[in-house]
Structures are given as C-alpha cells and as structure tokens.
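S.,

Sequence below, as promised.
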Amino acid sequence: MYLTDAPHLRILRLLRDEGPVSRAELGDRLELSRPRLLAEVERLVAAGLIAEAGMAASRGGRRSTLVELHPGLRFAAVDLGATSIDVEVTNGRLEPLAAYREATDIRSGPRAILHRVNDLLAKAKAEGVYERLDAVGIGVPGPVSFRDGVPVSPPIMPGWDRYPVRELLAREHGCPAVVDNDVNIMAIGERHGGVAHSVDDFLFVKIGTGVGCGIHLAGAVFRGVDGCAGDIGHIQVEPGGPACSCGNTGCLEALFSGAALARDALAAARSGESPALAQRLAAARPARSGSGRAARGGSESGAVVTAKDVADGAAEGDIACIRLIRDGGRRVGGVLATLVSFANPSMIVIGGGLAQLGHVLLAEIRSVVYRRSLPLATGNLPVVLSELGSRAGVTGAAVLASDSAFEQAS
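The prediction came back faster than expected:
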C-alpha cells in the first residue's frame, strides 16, 4: 500500500504502522534509491517528524541506524456518537496516552459538544500528556463533506449543518484537523488495528443510533463525490414502514437501529409478548446507568428497556427477543446482500452499539447474505464482528489525524 504514496508519506506511514526500521530496510521495503532515501530521511528529521533510534542488528556489514517517528508527536482522536464522546491522545505510533469517555447528547449542538471536546483535550494537556498537538481527527454521526470539513444536513444532529468543525478545531489547537463521518473512521480503525487488518476490500457496517456502511476499497475509504457514500440506513426496505428521521418512510434505520429496537422492545414488554422484557421493564428504574439513548426505550414513567435486555432475553430463550434480533438481522442482511453483489468485498465487519446483540444477529445476517448473494461472491466472504468494538472510531480518527499531519510535511 505504501508504493503509491509520495516518498515522505511512505516513510512516515511505514514507521507509524510498523515501528523503528533501519535506513537500509526502509530503502529495500519502499524501493527507494539510497540517495533519495537519505535525502528524505534528513528532511523529515529536520522537520521534527522522525528521529534516530539506536543501531539496527547487523546484516553482515556495517550496522545501520534505526529511525522512528519522533517520540514527541501527539495526535488527538475524537469519536462523537449520538450519546457519547470518546477522546484519545496518542503518540506517533497511535498508541493511546490518555483516553476519556463520557455521555452526551449530540442534539446539544456543536458549540456545547465541541467546547466539551476542547475541555477534555485541555485536561490531557494539564496532565502533561502533550505540549502541543500535531493534528486532530474527529468523526461525527452524520453525513460529512470531507473536502470542506463540515457536516451536511445530518438527520440526528440539529444545528450542525455546515458548521465549520474542521476550521474551529484547527484554529483552537493550532494544527491540521480532519473531519469524517463516524462509520468511515470506524472502518479506517478496523483496517488499521482490527479484524480487517491488511484487508483492502471490505464493508464496515455500524448499527447503533443510526445505520451506516464504511466502504473500504483498494486500500482506502470510498466516500463518493460528495462524501455520502455508504449511507445505507436510508435505503427503503419496507414501503409504507415507520417514519424515519430523514423524512422518508420504511428506511432500514427506522426498522432496525438503536431507537427502533428500543421502540419495538418496549412494545413487546408492555404487551406481555416478551415475558423477559416485561420483567425487566417492571424492575427498571428511571435513570438506569450504562444505557445510551441509542439503545434504550422509555415509557412515560421513565422506565427503560435496553439492547442488552434484548440480548439477555434472547440468551434466556425468550422467543420475542430472538425474533426482534432476527428480524433486524434479516433486514440488514437483505441490504448487505445487494451490496455484496455490487461491490464483491472480501469481508464484512459488523460494529456499533447493536453489535452487542452478538451471534444471534450475526448468524441471521450471514444467513441472508449467503442465501441471497451469488456463490462466487460469498464463497470466501467472512461476516464477522468488529474486533476493536468501541475503540474502532477513535483508532480511525487517530489514523486520519496522523495522515493529515504527514501530508503537511510535503
């Protein structure tokens, strides 16, 4: 993947992904002539991006010097969800040095949310994690113009339309900033350090408050002309179905997402169709901890049932809980079967909050995809759960931040 990049990017990304490497090995791996390599390394050392790291093992002659990313490099990674903020500060190898997670409501608006992000980064700075940031990467739960660094008409983010997120973060922290949607950064994260490591063509499907698909083709995220590729949550799967936040009806997201599952689970609990959920609803307290808006449903009294309740009920053999999960898996699988026939990926990764529904969901998605797609497309197609889980987003945001910083070195 490095051979198509500019020489300085090839060097920096290899050191980021693989750690200290000798000059001799860099030249061999990246197919650079020795004079060109030495000139690039010298320039990157002068720019403060790489540093010497001792002597390499002997290759039979004079020992070469190891080089590594400068130990002072710092990147901020931010993953905004509908109900949570995840912030990490990493070193050049993208190893987390500080991590913060807290509940929030994306509907609070960009000023309040970004102010809180900046507070968390200021906390890391006060704790001595960094002196200055080299770049910031952030993912948001809605469509993004990647070129402009702004959300565009995000259905669940009132007040965020065209808000200058990239510009404000870059100005606040005095460094490059990059903005993408949350499912794209999750796909990038899973490619960098998860189950899709070294897989060039795969789909990352996030099922949470919303539903989206990160499309990773030929080693890079495919965003489309305007940045909205992969917005599968608003594919209509049932004409005349429930109203969706986008203004249409019968969308996948309106039928199976965190909010949709909460709605249907609450109905099953109230009707008595699900004894397991009815029992949990009766025992629920108004402010039960650990359950975000994306995975809860509430009654007028404040009692809730959660996606975890549905998963636990299914594990206990509750027929209604199993049906809710299978119905959702069938709908997701139907959409993915179409995508498999269109894009022929080599892997599908399922992530997001509803991935906690586990193997009942996964088995149903697999069954529909394998049944409805051509055998040639599914003969070697694993459909798996995310390995990084809740860290996929911040990992991908850190990758984007580092790429942005490295590109500035041209």
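The CA atoms of residues 333 and 367 lie 8 Å apart.

Coffee later?
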